[in-house]
Amino acid sequence: MTAEGPGKWRHLHSTPTHFSQEQDTSSNEIVDLTNADPCDYPQAEPRQIYHEDVSESDEADTIEWNPEDDLGGADVDDTVILTLKYVNNEGATQSIELHEEPVQDLHLPSSSADGLPSLHVPSILEAQVQTAVQPQDLPSSSTRQLFVSASAASSADLEDIRHASIHRIKVVKDLLAVFMDSSIVHSTLKMDFVNEKAIDDAGVSREVYTAFWEQFLEQCEGETERVPRLRPDFGEAEWQAVGRIWVKGLLDHGVIPVRLSKAFIVACIYGTDSIDGDILLTSFLNFLAPVERSVVERALQGTMEEGDEEDLLDLFTSMGSHFLPTKENMETAIETMAHKAIIQEPKYIIDCFSTPMALVQPNLPDKERVLSLYETKKATGKRVCQLLETTKLVLSQREQTTFNHLQRYVKNADQTKAEKILRFCTGSSVICVEKILVTFNAEIGLNRRPVAHTCGATLEVPCTYSSYPEFRTEFDNILSSSYFEMDIL
């Protein structure tokens, strides 16, 4: 392709070429000259083009085109000459010399039944201008178009992928810094731990969210269920960032902190007016220490024992009340105390959480769905055991024995140990996978140890244990270390 200009518009000449009648007349190929020099085409290998029968009398025909007829006689000063050459199957050469102006549509009238094959040529003047040349007098079966465009279609928007490197020892600070940007909720987030060799394919992200909530909840009040409290280093932006972390972990990986009070979360999503007495009392009992919980339960049932009044008075005093209510007013007083501890005192935090948590309402349309989510996410020995599944349909005797040891170990685990097993296998202490795949190896000596691949939720277990106590001891030692490191094996 050559370009010359400026100059006047000239005629477009087409030298007719003989085509064979014996070849297929139904094919119509686009000859793409985008990245090639047309001057080289006579030496190129012949390519399949559209074939038509041309009589001998047509050989002298010349297509003459005066563009001023189409443009109403308008003067055109800036032109570009496009010289296009191609070769048909029989070696004949056909050239097009086109003086082009970047107009929107040009129509090429033709007195001959022989049309030009369709060509795709990029514009060298206007990147976004598309020029179509249409032979108007040809029958519909012989119609061709010449497109001049730098881009046939607009490129799709690139997906917003963000990467974050997190220090395990300060995961709260690092993750809060990432989520200070409100747009992060709508982005694809890939994370890794500093100085740990791991590629995030869900497993690393689950571990990051789990580590964050583990450290964050240490600064919250309560026991089984905890409630955030105002902190001097946290303002509105920080609390909203915490809310985004809750939302992002749930939407992307199904990770939520089940130790964060259910009543508190319901208030964040649906408002404080949505809290009823049952949800409030249940969360409050889990908020209390075991001894205090037992005293409050007996007070609600009217079965208080000797010494319970003193313990109950201590509880009321710590909540701001300095006297015991009567038996008739006991339930109302306890509900008031619960509302103060779980709703009133963290009200500012609830208001901050409510903005990002509005994003999960389509997934959690009512508070019953939230309560059900808490129940299904909670890890127990039996539930984790039901996730175990071997990758092989038929196991050897040693593999089957080891798998039986694993099932027995997991099924008898309490909630704390079940959460550790689940985190070891998946990166999360709550149930967020459909199954945990179990594979086996024959490692012995110092190399013998269970290995977990959290991204694929796969547990690799040696099948060389001589007894269940030996298996239990080795697994206990791994879980009790409380040391986690993401690595590529």
Précis, in short:
By secondary structure, the protein is an alpha/beta fold.
Topology:
Layout: E1 31-32, H1 67-70, E2 80-87, E3 93-100, E4 106-108, E5 119-121, E6 131-135, E7 146-148, E8 161-166, H2 171-179, E9 188-193, H3 203-217, E10 221-222, E11 226-227, H4 236-253, H5 262-270, H6 277-287, H7 290-301, H8 308-318, H9 330-344, H10 347-357, H11 367-377, H12 381-387, E12 388-390, H13 397-411, H14 415-426, E13 436-441, E14 451-453, E15 458-462, H15 468-480
Parallel strand pairs: 1-5, 4-6, 5-7, 8-9, 12-13, 13-15
Antiparallel strand pairs: 2-3, 6-7, 10-11, 14-15
Helix pairs in contact: 2-4, 4-10, 5-10, 5-11, 6-9, 7-8, 12-13
Give keywords.
489 residues, alpha/beta, Hect, E3 ligase catalytic fold, 3 domains, 5-stranded mixed β-sheet, 4-stranded mixed β-sheet, 15 strands, 35% helix, 13% strand, disordered N terminus
Outline the structure in words.
The chain is of the alpha/beta class. It has three domains: 31-148, no CATH class; 161-377, no CATH class; 381-480, Hect, E3 ligase catalytic domain (Hect, E3 ligase catalytic fold), CATH 3.30.2410. It has helices at 67-70, 171-179, 203-217, 236-253, 262-270, 277-287, 290-301, 308-318, 330-344, 347-357, 367-377, 381-387, 397-411, 415-426, 468-480; strands spanning 31-32, 80-87, 93-100, 106-108, 119-121, 131-135, 146-148, 161-166, 188-193, 221-222, 226-227, 388-390, 436-441, 451-453, 458-462. The strands form five sheets. The chain has a five-stranded mixed β-sheet, with no helix packed on it. Strands 12-13-15-14 form a four-stranded mixed β-sheet. The two termini are 55 Å apart. The model is unreliable at 1-65, 67-77 and 79-157 (pLDDT under 50).
